[in-house]
Amino acid sequence: MTKHMKSGVASSRRKSRKSYYEAPSSVRRVFMSASLNKDLREKHGVRSIPIRKDDEVLITRGSNKGREGKVTSVYRLKYVIHVERVNREKTNGQSVPLGIHPSNCVITKLKLDKDRENILERKKVGREAKANQMSKA
Q: In Å, how far are 26, 51, 108 from 124, measured between CA atoms?
C-alpha cells in the first residue's frame, strides 16, 4: 500500500519554514485565518475564514487577552493584524499599533460583502458535502 502525499507540501521542517516565509501575498491571506466565535460558527456553518480589515475581533491569547476591537490593518508581510486601541507607547511618547497574529484572535463580527458571502456559502456547501460523505461510509 502506498502513501498518498499532497504534491507541493513538504514534511521537512526546513522546507515548510521556507515556504511559509517566502509565500506570496495570496497564500499569506489564507495563512492569516482566524476562527469565528460560536454564534457566527453556527450561523454560517464555517469554522474559520481569512481575516480582513473592518472585522471585529476578540484577542484570546497573550498580554492583551480579552481586548476587543476592529481590525485597522492586515499586515501580510509581517503576518500580523493591527487592532483598534491595541497600542504601545514608545520611549519618545509616540503610540504604535501592536502586531497580533490572527490565530490568537476570534472573529466576533464579520464585514460582509458579496465576495465574502460567496466564500462563506462555498465553504459551507463543502463542509456539508463532506459530512454527508462521512455518514454514508
A: 21, 17, 18
Q: Which residues of 8-32 are buried (b: 16+ CB within 10 A; e: fewer)?
A: eeeeeeeeeeeeeeeeeeeebeeeb
Query: With the CA atoms of 83, 89, 93 and 94 taken in that order, what torsion angle do they form, in degrees rounded to the nearest 10?
Result: -30
How far, in Å, CA of 67 to CA of 52, rounded? 18
Rounded Cα gap, residues 86 and 64, in angstroms: 8
Cβ atoms of 82 and 69 closer than 8 Å: no
Which grid cell is 17?
519554514
CA distance 137 to 33: 30
The 10s digit of each residue's pLDDT in 84-137 is: 999 999 999 999 999 999 999 999 999 999 999 999 999 989 888 888 888 887
pTM above 0.85, yes or no: yes
Give the bridge partners for 80, in sequence order: 75
